[in-house]
Task: structure prediction
Amino acid sequence: MTETHCNVWDWDRLRMVKVKGTAKLFPPDEDVEVPILAQFADYLSAEVRAVIVDDDGLLTRISTDPEEDDTPFVAYLPISVAESLADCRTIQYSKLQELDRLGPGVDFSLYEDEFGIPHKVAFKFNPLNKPLRLQMAWNELNLLKSLPPHPNIVPFGRVVLEDVESRVIGFTTKYIPGRTLDNTNIPFRFEWMRQLTQLVDFLNLELGIMHQDIAPRNLLIDPDTNKILLFDFNWAAYGKKRLLDGRDNVTGVVFTLYEPITNDTLFANIPHWNRTIDMVQSISEWTCNRELDSDVSKFRNFLNDWVAMRKSDGNLERYLNAPNRLTWPDLPTAPDYNVPFNLGKTLDEEPIWRTGLRLRRTAMELGQYCFRWERPPQNAKQGQKWHSQTDV
Result:
């Protein structure tokens, strides 16, 4: 039977592994390669580029052949050409001590600043060369570094640079040890709703920023101040750029408040473009399944008044014409992609030269600098660690 393969990205060890087998093993529309690799990924040496499995998904042999490595090349921008980041404080990657892995692309880290003062931070990074991910990472970094200090936003920290060529590989934010709003054991406070609506008004109507992912999981509760803190701005839009249907912040706030009060997560599984405010606002009585510091009617009356104000005529125009609208340049094209590489030969045996995206092994053959993310496995598995390379 014909041999086929799937590339799997291991978020724990930050590397790609090719899973090879027969076509029988990989039925269409089923990501069987992820659980197959998960069985033994932690035990593979760093040199393994591919694993070969039988039709039962059992490991038969491994390959360390570099030609099996289909890891894409990510041309991270040198800080010297990222002009919009010129005023940011920076930290070298080697100075970050990993304390934990919080999720895909987010580490809990520690570093000492120039004065020897320790800082616990969340380090956010993107190791995948996918246009949408790269654009989202660029926008979030530029947005966070441009935001004025706000008591309900997790503070931005520093730009993280790799050590060899000072290329931008991520950023840090202050680490907040509190739990998120989706923790049902935490009594829900009326003041948090007031803070959230005021914050959304500030972002939308003052700065022209639409977060587009307002949700309980993205709202921390600061144990020191007992205030809510919004984070995860990677879906954010500024003005009309990247503005998506069904992701407006008013709708997000309504569902964000409905879910913690009722503990009803049904609507969280509905795609944003299929959700409307009326789905929950039309429910005559919200069944309270969480401890509140005020009667549920007080929450609903405040929310209804706020929604009516935000849905009034000219709301979109107010957003688009925000007086202190934040802007930043588009993601520059890294000069590395202008270097031509040989893609093969024509029928006439003439070389085919291309520029643009390439594999990491191709870039290495050209002598281009490649930052490598590979690291040892974490002992405790936390969350989903593997993703098929077909993911966004």
About this structure: The chain has a mean pLDDT of 92. The chain has three domains: 3-70, 79-174, 190-320. Residues 190-206 form the longest helix (17 residues).
